[in-house]
Specification:
Blueprint (H helix, E strand, L loop, with lengths): L3 H10 L4 E5 L10 H5 L6 E10 L7 E8 L6 H8 L3 E4 L2 H8 L16 E5 H6 L5 E5 L5 E6 H8 L2 E3 L14 H4 L3
Parallel strand pairs: 2-6, 3-5, 5-8
Antiparallel strand pairs: 1-7, 2-3, 2-4, 6-7
């Protein structure tokens, strides 16, 4: 499995400034990063992995969608961005096997070339290029702090409009996180 050390080594090879942050408590999902780090959700990113097909065939591809922690894009927005026939969350065992990350802690770096990467345009618009963004590392006890511009560049993510929210709530925030301070 990929972890913080693999990410750290890759970033060192590219001479990219970054920080591997030891979390004060373990997390089960990247959506917990804002609470654990004491940061606004806009500074913490979650990578959601979806399976999609271009036609009605059974052959499916994977796409990693980088969003603000706690935000779940509607499937129609992802379908539109991909020009896909159908999109659904990828099963955890498929995510684990294809990305080599724990399914709920996927980092937007070191993903296989076969996985397309999208990033919500609002993140690109809102996070200053020299601002630091935090993301999961594949491990429950660490996070990656990296300049947003470096993360956007190294991930190769394509910015797309994912503005419409899914059925999770009016704000697009996962319901369990809405009650968090």
């Amino acid at each position: 499995m990929k972890d913080a050390l693999a990410i750290h080594r890759m970033l060192l090879e590219r001479e990219t400034l970054h920080e591997i942050v030891r979390l004060p408590r373990a997390i089960a999902h990247a959506d917990e990063l804002p609470e654990v780090l004491g940061l606004p959700p806009g500074r913490c990113l979650a990578t959601r992995v979806y399976a999609f097909s271009i036609t009605s065939s059974v052959h499916r591809f994977l796409v990693a969608v980088v969003v603000e922690a706690g935000f779940v894009p509607c499937h129609e927005s992802v379908e539109r961005a991909l020009g896909a026939h159908s999109v659904r969350p990828a099963p955890a065992d498929l995510v684990n096997g294809e990305t080599e990350y724990a399914a709920d802690l996927v980092a937007p770096l070191l993903l296989p070339e076969s996985v397309k990467i999208l990033i919500d345009q609002r993140i690109v618009d809102v996070v200053p290029e020299d601002g630091v963004a935090y993301t999961a590392t594949g491990e429950p006890c660490t996070a990656l702090g990296i300049r947003a511009l470096d993360l956007f560049t190294l991930s190769g993510a394509e910015p797309v409009d994912l503005g419409k929210v899914d059925e999770v709530g009016l704000t697009g925030v996962i319901p369990a996180l809405r009650s968090s301070p």
